[in-house]
Amino acid sequence: MRTFGNRIERRALRLLSVLFDFVVIALGTLTMLYVVRMIWDLAVNSLIHFAPEDALQGIVLVLIFLEIFEIIVMYIIYHHVPMKNVVEIGVLALVKELLITLDLTELGWQVLLGMAALIAAMGWVYTRERQREDNYNRFLIEHGITEKDVDDLTKTLGEARE
Fold first, then answer.
1. Other beta carbons less than 10 A from residue 104's beta carbon
2. Taxonomically, which superkingdom (predicted)?
């Protein structure tokens, strides 16, 4: 009797997984369309009235959205997002915030101290993630394992779970 429930549960989970993938793909498509729109607006506004601060803020915002798009693509492919990419978005967002507030005297020392602590924490996480990736790649090289072998194994394990 439990086998029947497992089959129904597996089908329901597979259906929800496919639905989730479609939602993520739609978000990726909308993100890229928004990036194209931002680039167009940035180009038009720069031709009409060039303001270096606005152009720089627009460029950083485009970079943030491109990082978000990269995360969406990585999730679609691997169903996993490395923490390194999330930290990169955080750093870019902080840089954008600092660019908006060009007069740093407007910020209190508490805000600057908080931003410094946040940047230090994100730097630590980023460094740890890079070390983990380097150790992983070193392991693969030492044992003669290629990325194709890893992809094949991941695919086989995914099929075994279904």
1. 9
2. Archaea
Domain boundaries, the chain: 2-161
Using pLDDT thresholds of 50, 70 and 90, give the confidence band for residue 118.
confident
Cα separation of 128 and 14, whole Å? 34
Query: Which is nearest to 78 in space by CA: 151, 138, 10, 29?
Result: 151
Average pLDDT over residues 101-123: 79
- The 10 Å Cβ neighbour count of residue 158 is 10
Between CA 2 and CA 76 the distance in angstroms is: 32
**Phi, psi (5° rounding) for residue 157?**
-65, -40
Going by C-alpha positions, the residue among 94, 101, 41 that lies closest to residue 64 is: 94
What's the pTM value of the predicted model, to 2 decimals?
0.66
The set of long-range contacts for 151-155, using a CB threshold of 8 Å and a minimum separation of 24, is none
